Amino acid sequence: MSLLWMGEHDDLDRELVGGKAHSLNRMHALGLRVPPAFVLTTDVCRRFYAAGGELDAEITAMVRDAVRSMEERTGRRLGGTERPLLVSVRSGAARSMPGMMDTVLNLGINAEVEQALCALTGDAAYAADTHRRFGEQFERVVGTSAPTDPWEQLIAAIGAVFQSWMSPRAVTYRKHHGISDDGGTSVTVQAMVFGNLDETSGTGVLFSRNPLTGEPVPYGEWLPRGQGEDVVSGRYDPLPLAALAEQLPDVHRALLDAAARLEATGKDVQDIEFTVESGHLWLLQSRAAKRSPDAAVRLAVALHADGVLTTDEALRTVTPEQVNAVCKPRVSPEAKASAPLLARGEPACPGVGVGRVVLDVEEAEDLADSGVDVVLARPTTDPDDVSGMIVSSAILTEIGGSTSHAAVVSRELGVPCVVGCGSGTLKDLAGREVTVDGSTGEVFEGALALAPCSESDNPALATVTGWARARAPHAEGTPAEIVAAARQVIAEEAAAQPGAVLLTS
Q1: Could you give the 3-state DSSP secondary structure of residue 220?
Q2: Among candidates 195, 75, 197, which has minimal Cα distance to 127?
Q3: 51: exposed, middle or buried (C-beta count within 10 Å: 0-12, 13-18, 19+)?
Q4: How confident is the model at residue 502 (pLDDT cuts 50, 70, 90)?
Q5: In angstroms, rounded to a whole number, what is the distance separating the alpha carbons of residues 81 and 393?
Q6: What is the DSSP letter of 147?
Q7: Where are the beta strands (DSSP E) in 126-267?
Q8: Is the pLDDT of residue 417 over 80?
Q9: Which of 432, 434, 391, 399 is nearest to 415 (CA)?
Q10: CA–CA distance, 414 with 349 (Å, rounded to integer)
Q11: DSSP H or E run through 117
């Protein structure tokens, strides 16, 4: 199948529709508020590349029919000047690749539509802001100025999102994570809701549990009068989730209720993107949360204790690489007490990184290739920085919060990260050797002495390793090696019982 609507199927094949559309369909099934959306499947992506990077006539006709159906469902019209329909065009691979591929928001606007939005809302600033956002993002993603015809905008944006599957940053990311280039991405077209509309609008990200520490409490950020890209990009410093509870308590309660339901059905900690439009909550994405190595171990134990996961399922959520990272030495308290503190920000991924501060991605790659440990420091990161983030021992940003691009990607990479150190605070560190403590958000002068870490220091690690030893009693070696052996036993048993369903990390 080439085109599917969200909410019209009991379940969808993640390999066919990608993680985003799969999650939208799941939220529809739970009765949660999700804007209307349809998805062009990964089959279409393969057809697109086979046709030399073009949408064929059959797919184009399907998209036209789908847009007409969306207009009927919303009571709005693409390019209309009475009740305009604006849409987002988003990528969606089967395996989450946060920030690696492209998105276009607010598509369908032009000068006439801007005037219509102004007339409808009485807010010229909102209409102009929406038009500006679209123009800037379209040019950045598609590479040309936006045409005035919304249909031409849509076809160009769909093609650009498919093209982003083979962008250098996406290819680099997949190579690092051992993901095949063959899968392709889907493209989801969804009716826009506007976090930038008024004083009771905004956008945010919620984790059903803390992805940095593993604490069993909701964690997130909220940006009034913003759109989703504002938070993820790290170009703005959002507010803590408590600010949403204070400003819009009913929305906050509804959000936490949705998070609990999604965690229960997804059997994992959820990363939820949401928008509030004039006091109404809309959910735009829910996926298994990227978490720090420390949090991965603690969350496995907590989800098992809560009855969400069996022991085998809990072991499958923890990778040997995460266990190895948890076992690495930490900064010695004595060394920290006497070291000059150079910068401080918000912890985004725990752990310790030592290296030379560099401000440029290419320099980071060159130095790393020559055997130099580097700490990448940027005002904020974007997908084009991923190749430098992969080779760094730690990542620092001047702006952005703990749900920004830098924070999310660093947690998946298991690289210590500190965000929001303050505008202009990092450029003077270039060339200096520093120690980054991602657990406390501190950056110290020099390479500090480290203290060893063991199972006795970490009850959650001891529990996970104990499970692994019970599943693989003959395994020997480090905790990471024992966990790897246990996961192999579980995988072999699953292969022998085709009906078994196990979580994958």
Answers
A1: strand
A2: 197
A3: exposed
A4: very low
A5: 52
A6: P
A7: 185-191, 202-207, 219-224, 239-240
A8: yes
A9: 391
A10: 7
A11: helix 111-121
Cα(359)–Cα(180) distance, integer angstroms: 31
Structure tokens at 67: 């847009």
Reported as type and span, the H/E element at residue 32 is none
pLDDT in tens, 17-42: 999 999 999 999 999 999 999 999 99
Instruction: Assess contact for 145 and 131: CB atoms under 8 A.
Output: no
Q: Based on DSSP, count helices (H) and strands (E) in the chain, helices before strands.
A: 19, 22
The verdict on pTM exceeding 0.90 is no
4 forms bridges with which residues in the sheet? 39
CA-based nearest residue to 493, from 473, 472, 479, 464: 472
Enter the DSSP assignment of 404.
S
Residue 279's identity, in one-letter code, is G
Radius of gyration of the chain (CA): 23
SS3 category, 79: coil
Residue range 439-455: mean pLDDT, rounded:
91
Q: Which two tokens stand for residue 119?
A: 């007339």
302-336 tens-digit pLDDT = 999 999 999 999 999 999 999 998 998 889 889 99
Indicate the SS3 state at residue 84: strand
Task: Give the number of other Cβ atoms within 10 Å of residue 140's Cβ.
Answer: 12
Cα 16 to Cα 57: distance, rounded to the nearest angstrom: 21
Locate 433 and state its tokens.
């050797």
Identity of the amino acid at 137: Q
Closest CA to 397 of 411, 382, 418: 418
Q: What is the 3-state secondary structure (H, E, C) of 247-268?
A: HCHHHHHHHHHHHHHHHHHHCC
Task: Please give the structure tokens belonging to residue 338.
Answer: 């006497």
Pairing verdict, β 374-378 and 352-358: parallel
SS3 of residue 155 by DSSP = helix
pLDDT band per the 50, 70, 90 thresholds, residue 503: very low
